Amino acid sequence: MFKPLIAAAVIAAFAAPAALAGPAERLDRADHRLTAAEIRGDIAQGSRADFAEDRLDRFENKVDRRESRRDEAVDHGRRDVIEDRLDRAENVADRREDRIDRQN
């Protein structure tokens, strides 16, 4: 009697992070895989794939900044303020990385 309910709860627990992930989160996962391939040397520097990875990275950063601005507009206490500061620091690092990518 409880087995289907338990199975549904377990499936929901594992599926929730994927379902609740915002657009920046999903783009970040794809970008992370491409960046790892670039670091391993699978993507040659200056190639079309490298250019596409850089474009995706800039687009992901733009979506992430937009999401951060929406999040900063609402204050849910001290932890939220700390998260907003971390997001701002991440945005600064992303912009720095974008400038380095454009130089290469």
Question: How would you describe this protein?
Answer:
With 104 residues, the chain is an all-alpha fold. It has one domain. It is 84% helix and 0% strand. It is built from 4 helices and no strands. It has helices at 3-20, 23-40, 48-72, 78-103. It is flat. The protein starts with a helix and ends with a helix.
Order of helices and strands: HHHH
Proportion of residues in β-strands: under 5%
Using DSSP, what is the number of strands? 0
Low-confidence stretches: none
Q: What would you call the shape? A: flat
Structural class: mainly alpha
Count the domains: 1
Radius of gyration: 18 Å
Helix content: over 70%
What's the tally of helices? Answer: 4
Oligomer state equals single chain
Largest sheet: none
Distance between the termini: 61 Å
Arithmetic mean of pLDDT: 73
